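Blinded run. Sample ID left blank on purpose so nobody reads anything into the name before looking at the predicted structure. Input follows.
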Amino acid sequence: MLEIKDNIFWVGIKDWELRRFHGHELSTHRGSSYNSYLIKDKKTVLVDTVWDPYQEEFAEMLEKEVGLGHIDMIVINHMEPDHGGSLGHILSKIPETPIYCTKNGMETIRGHFHRDWNFNIVKTGDCVNIGSYDLVFVEMQMIHWPDSLLTYVKGANVVLSNDAFGQHYSAQSLFNDEVDACELYQEAEKYYANILTPFSALVKKKIEQIKGLSLPIEMIAPSHGVIWRDNPMQIVDRYYEWSQDYHEGNAVIVYDTMYEATKSMAQAIGRGLEKKNVKYKLFNCGKTDDSDLITELFKAKGIILGSCTVNNTMLHSVGGLVERMKGLRFKNKVAAGFGSYGWSGEAPALISRKLEEAGLTIVMDPIKVKYRPTAEDLGRCEEFGSGFAEKMR
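Blinded prediction complete.
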C-alpha cells in the first residue's frame, strides 16, 4: 500500500511477467499493473479491484491494511475482469457493502457474477460526500466500454480515470516523474492506438466536456501503469491530439512474402518514397508484433500493404492485420495495395478493397508483379512509391 495523496492509497498489483493481454490480442513487453485505490476518510472507499487471478493476495492485503469490514463503499469504474475481477471474492466476505457504478456497470457486474448486490447507480455530476472529500462521478461511456466511469476526488483534486490515460507498463515507480519518459510515452501511445482508437471521437468530446468543468486536477491515477502527478494534464493534451485523426506525416510499408518477391517490391516502393523525401518504415507483418505494428500504422499518414497471392487470396498475416485495422477505424489515412503472384494474382486488388472497407482512402490502383520482379518491374514499383508520395501531400 502506497499513499499517493493525503489519505488516498494505491492498493494494486504489479504484474511484471505479463506479456499478452486481452487473451493473446495485445502485447505487453513491459508488463502491466492493476491499479486499485483506497480512500481513508470518514468513510473508507475502495475504488476498483484487481484481476481475479490475484484476488486472494488482494483480499489479504486489504484485510491487513484496513480490514475488509471497515470498507464502507466500493466504486467500480469499469467491470472488465482486469479491474473488477476480484469484486466477487471481496463481496463474499462483505456482501452488504454498497457498490457505486453506472447503470451499465450494474448490468455488467450482474452479467459477470450473476448476483444482485447493493447497487447504487450514479451518473455524470452525481456527488457523494465521504468526509473531507467528495466523490464526483463522470460517465465515460464507450471509453472504452459502455459502463466506463471516471471518479474525481474533490478536495484532493485527484482523477481516478480507470482505462483512460493508462499504459500497460510495470515500472520502477508508480509516478510519471520517476520513470523513463520515453518508455512511458511509448506505452501510452501503444495503449491508445490499440485500445482507444475506435473511440477517438468520443474521447475528444469527453475531454472537451471535462475541461469545460474547470476542475482543478493535480493528479491523474489510471487503472494500468503509472500515475500522472507531474503536470498531469500533459497526457490529457496528448489524448486530445491523438483523438483527432492523428498522424505524423510518414508512410509505413507492410508486407508478407513467401519467396521474397513481394519483399523486393516493398523495398523498391520505399526507394520511390525516398525520392520524394517521404520518410517511411518497412515491416514484414509475419515477423512483427501485431500490437507494435498497429502503433506504427496509427502514427502513419500513408499505408502501403502487400502480399503475394496464395489460394486466390492474401497471406493470413496480412488478412488478419487488415481486419484489425477495420476494427480500429483509422481515419485520415491514404493507402494502396501491392503484391506478387504466380498464376492468379487476386491479392493486391483484394487488399485494396479491404483497406477501403477499413475506412482508408485508396489513392492508387494496386500494383502487381508476376513471379520474381525484373529490373523493369522494380522500376515500376519505385514509380509507384513516388506516385504514392505525391498523393500524401
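Unblinding after everyone has recorded impressions. DSSP finds twelve helices and 22 strands in the chain.
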